[in-house]
Amino acid sequence: MTEQYGDLRELYQEVIFDHNRHPRNFHAIPDASHTADGHNPLCGDQLTIYAQLKNGIIEDVSFVGHGCAISKASASLMTEAVKGKTVAEAEALFHDMHIMLTEARPEGRDFGKLEVLSGVREFPARVKCATLAWHTLHNAITEARDTARTE
Ligand code: ZN
């Protein structure tokens, strides 16, 4: 492991710790147009995603719940990443995130801050923690009613 890689890892961990300790958009939206529950029984992560959609755009998005640092940080980063995006853009980002977290980094996509979760790929058991919020958002904005499970 090179020195530079170690520094990057540390920075990534700091961002994850920060989002776990101070999650962004961590509240309910009582009159949200779309909502879904997510559950990762392997780790005990449980969350609810709220989305306010207008003309195909995610005007507001938030979450509540409890779980491990990865699941909470991932949900927090996700809300920041998809707010203001169209449903189609959010779905495309979900698709690419899933590839980044399970296979390899897709070419030609700038993940911005979401990049900090890329290290999860080395820990298959934690992938489900990182993808839970995304699966749940997908269910919320596509109006699937079932609880998302990353079992
Ligand atoms: Zn977890």
Report on the architecture of this protein.
With 151 residues, the chain is of the alpha+beta class. The protein has one domain (2-149): Sufe protein. Chain: A. Helix content is 44%, strand content 19%. It contains four helices and four strands; from the N terminus they run αβββαααβ. It has a four-stranded mixed sheet with strand order 3-2-1-4, covered by helices on one side. Strand 2 (45-54) and strand 3 form a beta hairpin. Helix 1 (3-21) packs across helix 2 (69-82). The model has no long low-confidence stretch (mean pLDDT 91). Residues 40, 43, 45, 67-68, 70-71, 129 line the site of zinc ion.
Per-chain topology:
Blueprint: H1 3-21, E1 34-40, E2 45-54, E3 57-66, H2 69-82, H3 87-102, H4 124-141, E4 148-149
Parallel strand pairs: 1-4
Antiparallel strand pairs: 1-2, 2-3
Helix pairs in contact: 1-2, 2-4, 3-4
Bound molecules: zinc ion.
